[in-house]
Design brief:
The chain is α/β, with parallel strands linked by helices. It is about 35% helix and about 30% strand. About 25% of the residues are buried.
Length: about 190
């Protein structure tokens, strides 16, 4: 499946970009590119509807957040819902929660086996996935993973509206929105 997708690598270290591109080829991606901006991604989705963004964990938080916002708020559906994965060496709970709150689709800690990496990436394809847009968050459903987080519980108690999307990434046709509904958050103590 990954051979029908493109890997786009985002980092400041050119050597890491090249290593990650080789890793993506080994994982099965036929095409890999360095990150050239969101407009470049939008141009490429016409040819290859499903593109993965691989981000290096040492990129600055501002860069990651700006890129995340530009992608998640893009008008092109295949860009907006593209799978974004951060590669990290830091497996601390704080680090994982940090990337979860940003809206990454997955966090892969290295070193890891190639079969593990491919399995994780394939979970982003050809299955129903829940996404939420609420306040400044737009990304995968993380409610179950964030229940212990005090900031998350405080936001839930505040109520408000959110949009729930059910999507499916199809390697031939791109992202399909199977369901979209605006809802009100339950206020719970």
């Amino acid at each position: 499946m990954l051979d029908k997708c493109t890997a786009i690598v985002m980092a400041t270290d050119k050597a890491w970009i090249e290593r990650c591109k080789k890793l993506a080829h080994t994982a099965g991606f036929e095409e890999t590119y360095g990150f050239l901006g969101v407009d470049d991604i939008a141009r490429r989705v016409r040819k290859t509807p499903v593109q993965f963004l691989f981000a290096h964990y040492e990129l600055g938080e501002d860069v990651l957040r700006e890129t995340m916002i530009a992608i998640r708020h893009h008008h092109e559906r295949d860009v907006k819902f593209m799978p974004m994965v951060v590669f990290t060496k830091d497996q601390s709970v704080a680090s994982l929660k940090h990337f979860l709150k940003m809206g990454f689709d997955d966090i892969v800690a290295f070193p890891c086996a190639m079969t593990h990496l491919v399995g994780r990436l394939e979970l982003q394809l050809d299955r129903k996935l829940d996404y939420f847009q609420a306040g400044d968050y737009f990304g995968p459903d993380r409610r179950r993973l964030m229940e212990e987080d005090e900031d998350y519980r405080r936001e839930r108690r505040a109520g408000g509206t959110y949009t729930h999307f059910v999507i499916q990434r199809d390697i031939e046709h791109g992202v399909r929105i199977l369901h979209q509904k605006q809802e009100h958050a339950r206020e719970s103590a």
